[in-house]
Amino acid sequence: MSNQTKKDQTQELIKETTKNLFFVKGKFDATTQEIADEAGVNRTLINYYFRSRDNLIQIIFDEAHKVEHEKSNIIMNSDLPFKEKIAQFIESSLSTSLQYPYLETYIVSQINKGNCHKKDIEEGELEKLYKDIESEMELGNIEKMKPIQFVLNMISLLVFPSAIRPLLMENLMIGEEEFDKIISERKDIILNMLFKK
Length: 197
What we know:
The chain is an all-alpha fold. It has 11 helices and no strands. The protein is elongated and about 60 Å long.
């Protein structure tokens, strides 16, 4: 194995370990030492490969943001019928929630701190989305409301359960596996709440 291959594998291991701690376990305040211990590497390697914990966090935030942007592209750049685009977006979002239960919470926490904010949707794309929603309302497929309310309903139905996952699990007395099963069953429930037919 070449030195470059080993370096690449170690960098990837550190990034994946950090993602796991942040997005799967919800440990946003994990220290450089905790990341190193979890990855089974020397702490100095994190600084060697990434220069600092903050730089490592910026890199994993950028990768997380890329995932979010790809989900938005499903709605913005697909020629599928509107309901099918929404169904794909919901499926992709739920799949991401199962893989990274704390991703949305992390992104919101970083935006609230004033860190790492990037816009997912351009103004023209948003206007087109609103027109598509209005067309569906005129066809009777969606209840009449301001298009932004439709978007808020969809995002709330998708994100809220994952954003408060620990609270729901504790208060509803359910474990990780059962919660994941509940999340995986939400696609049809959400579609039926958003669309009349």
